[in-house]
């Protein structure tokens, strides 16, 4: 197995704090409780050293796969044998409908083919002005806040990521609908979107009380999205020119290259919901962890600030990539085996659960040198390549994140704008620990001191 080269960055070694893993595999109920509060606490210390783990959970066999060849088999070589899990579908469908993230088979292929042109690097270029205008406005708002004292950067970054999602999708900011949108997202992230014991034990065909609450949520959510889309269309009609300006224009114009078919209104709405949900919180936590790491590593922060005025930003981008190694926003990729297979010498049966955890992979003792240390040098041009299938912030294979290029551009530019403008320092000494539920969140919103450069 190829090991990563030693850290090459000149800053003193920084090892940010992590929760202490349990010594042994957790018993079932504690395991399920951990999944609901902090999935990172599910894995015992040994999981960071072993290529594959197997356990029984509620009558089902569950594999955790950290062997790069086996990861490649699940996500790429034998990807059609591994589907989204019933829990993923149960929890996400009320929010995402039949959008790209949870669709399967022919419906997924049609959507993926149709959507792909909207996420090419050229299409992302078109979205850059939206990213920059939202970031600049966030900097102005932060300046006001910082003059009054320590700043809750997490809330500010969540707002920024949602503002960017709104502008890139609709060309307009979230001034009008932002408060309701945040309300929907908070209800979902705080309660309805969290896996519950009933999601695991009750078969999908029976509606649990939580399912019924999710169905009520969906009715309001769909009506809300329809209003936002109708409002945006009215606003856009008043503008002239037929050039695509935002993702909604691109999604409307998109046609399946094989069938010529575009999206119906309902399909379009589900894609809009999917892109907003898949894209904003993941980017917000990436930015928060990047700011937290840079506040702990002033030398690295200066290197990011030094690039702010430059057009190319290789170091800032490397800092984002290294942040996503230490705090992968999507901390698990969950699959259900459709048929038998063999992974790292173990027999997998139809119905088994197979989990790949970017969190475990990215900190695996056998795959990385000094895995817990923050070192953007690992990702600089010219550095030895990172181990294949051991670095998966965006997944891999046919279901790799469709927004990866967009997300990397967005996070790099937003971080550059913020760090180029302010010197970031923590306002207190309380360690920030990861607490992963759907994404890898901070366990509290840390206070930062922002000083203008
Ligand atoms: C730092 C930001 C982001 C991270 C870390 C991230 C991570 C991921 C990961 C790991 C997957 C694969 C999940 C799996 O295999 O089970 C995924 C899929 C997806 N992501 Fe992202 N994502 C980010 C931003 C975005 C953005 C900005 C968008 C859209 C605007 C987006 C849209 C999607 C969609 C639609 C899928 C499903 C693709 C499919 O199933 O074909 N993501 N993302």
What is the strand and helix layout of this fold?
Blueprint: H1 28-37, E1 52-57, E2 60-65, H2 68-77, E3 82-83, H3 86-96, H4 105-115, H5 121-147, E4 151-152, H6 153-170, H7 178-192, H8 197-201, H9 209-237, H10 247-253, H11 265-296, H12 298-306, H13 314-326, E5 333-337, E6 341-343, E7 346-348, E8 353-356, H14 358-362, H15 404-421, E9 422-426, E10 434-436, E11 440-442, E12 447-452
Helix pairs in contact: 3-9, 5-6, 5-15, 6-11, 7-9, 11-13, 11-15, 12-15, 13-15
The structure holds protoporphyrin IX containing FE.
Residues 100-101, 112, 274-275, 278-279, 282-283, 286, 329-330, 333, 393-395, 399, 401-403, 406-407, 411 line the site of protoporphyrin IX containing FE.
Keywords:
alpha+beta; Cytochrome p450; 15 helices; 11% strand; globular; binds protoporphyrin IX containing FE
Provide an overview of this structure.
- The protein is an alpha+beta fold and 453 residues long.
- The protein has one domain (28-234, 245-452): Cytochrome p450 (Orthogonal Bundle).
- Helices cover 49% and strands 11% of the residues.
- It has 15 helices and twelve strands.
- It has helices spanning 28-37, 68-77, 86-96, 105-115, 121-147, 153-170, 178-192, 197-201, 209-237, 247-253, 265-296, 298-306, 314-326, 358-362, 404-421, and strands at 52-57, 60-65, 82-83, 151-152, 333-337, 341-343, 346-348, 353-356, 422-426, 434-436, 440-442, 447-452.
- A five-stranded mixed beta sheet has the order 1-2-8-5-3. It has a three-stranded antiparallel beta sheet with strand order 4-12-9. The protein has a two-stranded antiparallel ribbon with strand order 6-7.
- Protoporphyrin IX containing FE (HEM) binds next to helix 11 and helix 15.
